[in-house]
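S.,

As promised, the acetyl coenzyme *A run. Input:
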Amino acid sequence: MADKHATLTLPSGKTVELPVYSGTIGPDVIDVAGLLKEGYFTHDPGFMSTSATESRITYIDGDEGILLHRGYSIEDLAEHSDYLETCYLLWYGTLPTPEEKAQFVYNITRHTMLHESLAHFFDGFHHNAHPMAMMCGAVGALSAFYHDVMDIRSQRDREIAAHRLVAKMPTLAAMCYKHSIGQPFMYPRNDLSYAANFLYMMFGTPCEEYVVSPAVERAMDRIFLLHADHEQNASTSTVRLAGSTGANPFACVSAGIAALWGPAHGGANEAVLRMLDEIGTVDQIPRFIEKAKDPNDPFKLMGFGHRVYKNFDPRAKVMKASSDEVLAELKVVDPRLKVAMELERIALSDPYFADRKLFPNVDFYSGIILSAIGIPTSMFTVIFAVSRTIGWISHWHEMISSPYKIGRPRQLYTGEAQRPYPSN
Ligand code: ACO
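Predicted complex:
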């Protein structure tokens, strides 16, 4: 129940009392649902100031650069936790005991294999298909295997679906890569960690032993962890909207993957590397900075700016530290890294970017690390999708667990009013 109200005066002069709700932290929320009976919609393209739901999973304060999962800061999780423990936290709401964690890791590990028929789906994809295109299709296709056995009203069925998704995403992601380079698929290995198993399925071959570097394994796990959830972003909202119709969760996650693909969202880490290639050499940076500042030029600095973070992206700080560690450990010599570092320096000292609060976001650094590890650019967003799966499915679970309505926005119609069809 609301203990505060906002008063709105309508053009007619009538005043309407709107309930105001307070969350644990963050801005208060005005409940405008009652405006419909007064004959009004609210208008907020891009959902700039619209709360679509109540949630207990993740909190972001964009001005202060705070990101909390179930109350724990992303910096603390990156330092003390690991990806699977963070998955447990997001789904169940608490950190696991050692026994609970062991059981969870066991459950995930034992669900990593795919139905063998699913492997044949890949034969239908041309070898140069974008891995995100294959991911959308392959994850959606999981619903064909787990539809009749899935009752979304059952908490246990939802939990099994979550285990399956988190477990199978790395296997599917690696299959997309292997298909694109014509190498045989590698079956998952249960003796490896989540991150190491993914690297093994990506880079191993049946011909020789593949040893995972501990530094790379750590960096991979951290990339997964830092992308695990991010509140009601475009892809999560897509999953929720699709899920609000009662659709199968594997199909909903496939919809989320489609939303993630765009360069304004998850596709940004891939776009960062393409941009670095386009810039080419350090002496070209000033020209591209000018292009980014030109309001008549569509060019933007990829990996800079964020809809919510207007101070700094806390994930970017952790990712930058990780990036420094990996680059030092692997002694990578890549001319793009020189361009990236100089671009970061120049952009951070340019008033255009400072005035608009445009800072490097998590994708700027994750692109650099993934490239150093040897992950091809086209796989970057796929890896983001693997990481974000737990966020998507946790929000879907939270929505289904409480009363919810089908998501159905309204509009401000500015087209033709009704008119007669011409008789001749
Ligand atoms: N390069 C140059 N200028 C930029 C950039 C950029 N990367 N981002 C925003 N601006 C400028 C805009 O042109 C605008 O300038 P103006 O006020 O003079 O018109 C101003 O900054 C505000 O930008 P908006 O587009 O209103 O900001 P919004 O919050 O809507 O967009 C977004 C955020 C989409 C992330 C944008 O900054 C962008 O496209 N960045 C590049 C893509 C990217 O890195 N996306 C990853 C986001 S993180 C993630 O998904 C994990």
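The first strand starts at residue 4 and ends at 9. The beta strands are 4-9, 15-21, 29-30, 58-61, 66-69, 72-73.

- D.
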